[in-house]
């Protein structure tokens, strides 16, 4: 079986083709704002401009599209204007080839590609990206959100702080680079709230210190506080459920300090830490294709075009999981 997947929840327009045995291709184009954050209309324009080119690239790299068994797309959650582009392209392809159109939850596909590309089986997932920050575990029929941000996502927080420091978007890599220049830390508020966390206040507090505190110290302090909070919540979740596996995914999973903290915490709990390859931590089309493949193999007949609208606020715990 072969499934083509389309990702377009935010900054990335990605196309991937997977079979049971291999990822045949994963190509993408990322929208990079000249200034500010992700402007929905501009990002959607970017996706429209690159859709055909990425589809052609995928066609050359994988196989004849006539061999495809289904088309999957990120139905949500995400930026509505961006989601619409992927949905339109996916509907057209499914119609043209007369194959099922599969709606995929973006967050769950991060977990599925994570278990496919590592040895993790039933992990507690820390999913930290530009738009989402959640701790997720599978329990009897659904993925449950055990903890999550109460305001903005961790990646968004890093990007906001980076903007005020004059760093390019996305800001995570340059904040990591600056933080690596020092071991010094100043005290900031610790943003954990029970099993949840929140980053808006921490961003404001850090922003107010710009100019008074050296940039590497600010970046290092922000990272230490924010990452310690999510790892503490992850540890609590694992302790509560007795989980012996942690999976770190989403764009912020690229951060080496965060990986180190997750690794250390797991070591101390005699648990295993799993990190998917960087290309599969960031948004990509292969993960959508893979999630589609799972659903197809489990009997998903696909969406009726009339009911294939995007779901910008679709939470992972709203999906009835019948494939585990
Ligand atoms: P995603 O939405 O999953 O594609 O992830 C994008 C987010 O990942 C952005 O907010 C980036 O700032 C963040 N990111 C990328 N690389 C790093 C890094 N090395 N450290 C921290 N955050 C990162
Ligand atoms: Mg994502």
Automatic annotation (TrEMBL):
Biological classification of the source: Archaea, Candidatus Nanohalarchaeota, Candidatus Nanohalobia, Candidatus Nanohalobiales, Candidatus Nanohalobiaceae
EC number: 2.3.1.234
Domain Gcp-like intervals: 31-289
Keywords annotated in UniProt: Acyltransferase, Kinase, Metal-binding, Transferase, tRNA processing
Top-level class of the enzyme under EC nomenclature: transferase
GO cellular component entries: cytoplasm; EKC/KEOPS complex
GO biological process: tRNA modification; tRNA threonylcarbamoyladenosine metabolic process
Keyword tRNA processing assigned: yes
Record-linked SUPFAM superfamilies: Actin-like ATPase domain (SSF53067)
Catalytic activity: L-threonylcarbamoyladenylate + adenosine(37) in tRNA = N(6)-L-threonylcarbamoyladenosine(37) in tRNA + AMP + H(+)
Organism: Candidatus Nanohalobium constans
Protein name, UniProt field: N(6)-L-threonylcarbamoyladenine synthase
Gene Ontology molecular function: any one: kinase activity
The UniProt record lists the keyword tRNA processing: yes
InterPro entries: ATPase_NBD, Gcp-like_dom, KAE1/TsaD, Peptidase_M22_CS
